[in-house]
Amino acid sequence: MSDFLKIQGLQARIDADGTPKDILKGLDLEVPKGEIHAIMGPNGSGKSTLSYVLAGRDDYEVTGGSATFKGQDLLALDPEERAALGLFLAFQSPVELPGVNNANFLRTAVNAVRRARGEAELDAVAFLKAVRAETKHLSMSDDMLKRAVNVGFSGGEKKRNEVLQMRLLQPSFAILDETDSGLDIDALRIVAEGVNSLRSPDFSALVITHHQRLLDYIVPDRVHVMAHGRIIHSGGPDIAKTLEKQGYTQFLEAAA
Amino acid sequence: MPAVTETRETVEKLAKSSYEWGFETDIEMDIAPKGLNEETVRLISERKGEPQWMLDWRLKAFRAWLEMEEPTWAHIHHPPIDYQDAHYFAQPKKKPGPKSLDEVDPELLRTYAKLGIPLHEQALLAGVEGAEERLPVAVDAVFDSVSVATTFRKTLAEAGVIFCPISDAIREHPELVQKYLGTVVPVADNFFGALNSAVFTDGSFVYIPEGVRCPMELSTYFRINARNTGQFERTLIIAEDRATVSYLEGCTAPQRDENQLHAAVVELIAMEDASIKYSTVQNWYPGDDEGRGGIYNFVTKRGICRGARSKISWTQVETGSAITWKYPSCVLAGEGSVGEFYSVAVTNNHQQADTGTKMIHLAPNTRSTIIAKTISAGKSDSTYRGLVRMQPKARNARNFTQCDSLLIGDQCGAHTVPYIESRNMTARVEHEATTSKISEDQLFYCRSRGLSEEDAVGLIVNGFCREVLKELPMEFAVEAQKLLQISLEGSVG
After folding, report:
1. ipTM over 0.85
2. B451: nearest CB among A61, A94, A108
3. Alpha carbon distance B413, B19 (integer Å)
4. What is the DSSP pairing of strand A5-16 with strand A19-31?
5. Chain B partners of A94 at a C-beta cutoff of 8 Å?
6. What is the mean pLDDT of residues A188-199?
7. Which residues in chain A are contacts of B449 at CB distance < 8 A?
8. Is the Cβ pair B444, A58 closer than 8 Å?
9. CA distance B423 to B444
10. pLDDT digits (tens, 9 = 90+) for A5-37
11. Is the four-CA dihedral B240, B241, B246, B250 of positive or negative sign?
12. Residue B294 gets which letter from DSSP?
């Protein structure tokens, strides 16, 4: 099934203090079912915008092109409908929710998604059992479940919390937006394992990263180079190593 | 700013949350004619079978009220209230007092069910066998003006606790009522307090004797159910030395076209080492989307910590009413006594709330804490108004105040008006205040996890109020969380 996630000629802009600024300028990308793809690119190339537009953040205006997921028009859906359909975005900067108990947040989210997918909701006991298994796996303390969502979490804790959410929501497509930034090597390994453990013929992911390092742990099927709001080059995992050594210049020149 | 435009559109599109519990119960009523004069006061006193001293007390209050003017300092606006255009007494027509719960009108029980009164309490009200033993909560249900069901009186009586409608207390415990009624809120204290003193029709009376820890939470459900009947509840709670009590008050009301006046008075008295916890969830009809027809809620609540080391704690979740005018206060007269005020006030559509507290520190080493959370949505306006007064003898007294406002949308208002008066150099007063909006980041984060916009707002708002909600007794906290969400439905931003 090649039309799992299919993006064609996607254009999007954001309102920057009253002036519209084009960020995505005709982006094409396909991620087949069961594959993990990576996107690398210099700062300002539009990587994060792509992830936000796919997840449905409404301060971006889509001005052209299309994005379909599982044959559905992704851009017509609300963020929560995309989540129910199986899309998950691991945030680069997870948002703090003061006073909102993390376990309560997780359970509300899990049950909202289960409800939308026509599955039975988890009661408190079943949920706790599920979440405990995951936190153990991710070397997270139970304490993190009792605290307010992301409030006072270290960078590593926030990222682990994102992976925890991903594991619990069981998406069929995950977007990881620079999930490796600010992680030490142990945390990186744990996060990567969290993603790898989801690998299956029914699970795809788009890993957005600056560094080749993460791709040592999450080995992608394909790597795309992004610049100026477009994919300018695609290839096998080796591209990541070339980029690490030689930078983006050769790709940028080739695309120019 | 696209985000703001979006917010406004969403608010307008969704600002149609209707009052879920707007319905009328068809029970035969015994209603006094409209109008307020000495005859009305005499009629009420007579219908309640009151002794002469009570009538005299009412008349004193009524005469004082005639000399007083409606206060205008609050940040609220409403058309003038015509005090002659209301009934001041209404009671369901019944045999004189139900002998058992089986005699309770089934229509009334259905009303309780619609109100979402917890099942076990319904079972109790319905007189289910054995319900009494299973339950740690006592309910004194005030249906309109007359208590039609009082439960647990026996169990409580064994502990020496008196928990009954105040009209019963006036007849059965006149010495206690006479000793304490009006000692915290004198008859001429304020316009609405005086009005209440003249015409109050019912309410609760609680007396916890020395050294007794009340064996259960005491709970009263208030409900306004007769067209144009002002509700004038009167509550008096006394905790003797080393006594402890927790009292819950919850309210809902049916949908109305005309404004309904409500002016309750609550008096709390805590003696040495006594502790009174008073929790309120208020959900009266707030009016329609245009602000028509909601309840006017002018309440005087005040407690006095008379004894050393006594403690009074007010917790309130205010989601209803067209107008809320309410300042639960503590007079800290006993050395080392403690006053607390935890409040969540939610306003939506055209609701107006001017609420807060007064902490009057009279004695040395007294402490008070104020945590006030204000949430404004729609075109509503909300004001926190709080007074902290340190009198000359309040050596080493302490106050900590935290006022946080959360705005939803861009057409609402939130105001914080702290009054701080310190007449003692050693007293310390701290005041913190914040104002914030629910951010687009927070909403998007929640929605990307599958939560609907409204669930996301509910979650964030409940998080914002957590410090207050955790002060509520468990059952009430759950109810309050649901209420917050219902109150803010359609106000997402």
Report:
1. yes
2. A108
3. 22
4. antiparallel
5. 445
6. 89
7. 83, 105, 109, 112-113, 165, 169
8. yes
9. 49
10. 999 999 999 988 888 999 999 999 999 999 999
11. positive
12. P
